[in-house]
Design a protein that fits this description.
By secondary structure, the chain is mainly alpha-helical. The chain has a domain at 37-95: Multidrug-efflux Transporter Regulator, Chain: A, Domain 2, CATH 1.10.1660. It contains four helices and three strands, in the order αβααββα. The protein has helices at 8-33, 43-50, 54-62, 79-104, and strands at residues 41-42, 69-71, 74-77. Strands 1-3-2 form a three-stranded antiparallel beta sheet. The longest helix has 26 residues, at 8-33. It is rod-shaped, with a radius of gyration of 26 Å. The model has no long low-confidence stretch (mean pLDDT 88). It comes from Paraprevotella clara. Residues 40-84 form the Helix-turn-helix domain. InterPro entries: DNA-bd_dom_put_sf, HTH_17.
């Protein structure tokens, strides 16, 4: 094993720079943790909330009507994006219900 000796001043300077680096990393970590994944909804949550099938959800994504983010192979949605499309989906369901009643009634 090789032993390396350095001056105390050089060692203290190195420790100070390392502490500064660590503080910078901690700051970046805290900024990133403000964007919690708990604020996001997964596909199952969205399907249940909108009362739609996974295929309909995929159609909403493919058509660009619902924004999403994909991390690895999992898809997430911002609640505000889902809330924005909620009235549209309710109106569509009501329209379908009316069409069925008119067809059979």
């Amino acid at each position: 094993m090789e032993i390396i000796s350095i001056e105390k001043k050089a060692f203290e300077e190195m420790v100070s720079k390392l502490n500064g680096f660590i503080a910078g990393i901690e700051t970046l970590y805290l900024k990133g943790s403000d964007k919690k994944m708990s604020d996001w909804m997964d596909s199952q949550d969205v399907c249940m909330l909108l009362d739609i099938s996974p295929r309909t959800l995929q159609t909403l994504r493919d058509s660009g009507r619902l924004a999403y983010s994909q991390i690895n192979h999992k898809i997430y949605y911002l609640p505000e994006d889902v809330e924005r499309i909620l009235p549209v989906m309710e109106k569509k369901k009501e329209s379908m219900k009316t069409q069925k009643q008119n067809a059979y009634g």
